[in-house]
Specification:
With about 110 residues, this protein is of the alpha/beta class. The protein contains three helices and six strands; from the N terminus they run βαβαββαββ.
Length: about 110
């Protein structure tokens, strides 16, 4: 399934199948641009930016792809946009992984 996250859900905006320059330059402004990006890859990019390790516990989410531009907001705002757009839930664990990253589970 491909889910498009629309602007009504906060910072996410439709960027279409071909992101063009907005995707290529999003990193320059400290943001993200996802076009048909698998959830795991989107979370990897977000995790790298915010020093978080995500573990997807809900295997039904594994095949979903996202298109959107969450910008450069703080981590909580980006996660809230995912929650509003697709009902994804995040749980922060009271431990870190081997590299010192905070661990968050995804449901």
């Amino acid at each position: 399934n491909i889910w498009y996250i629309c602007g009504v859900f906060g910072a996410f905006h439709i960027c279409g199948r071909n992101a063009g320059p907005s995707k290529a330059l999003a990193w320059k402004d400290g943001g993200f641009a996802f076009c048909d990006t698998p959830l795991e890859e989107a979370l990897r990019q977000i995790g790298n930016r915010f020093c978080v390790s995500f573990t997807v516990k809900n295997k039904a989410l594994a095949g979903k792809c996202y298109t959107g531009n969450p910008g450069s907001e703080n981590l909580q705002t980006i996660l809230q946009d995912f929650e509003l757009a697709d009902g994804i839930r995040f749980k922060t664990l009271d431990k870190t992984d081997g590299s010192g990253r905070k661990i968050m589970e995804v449901y």
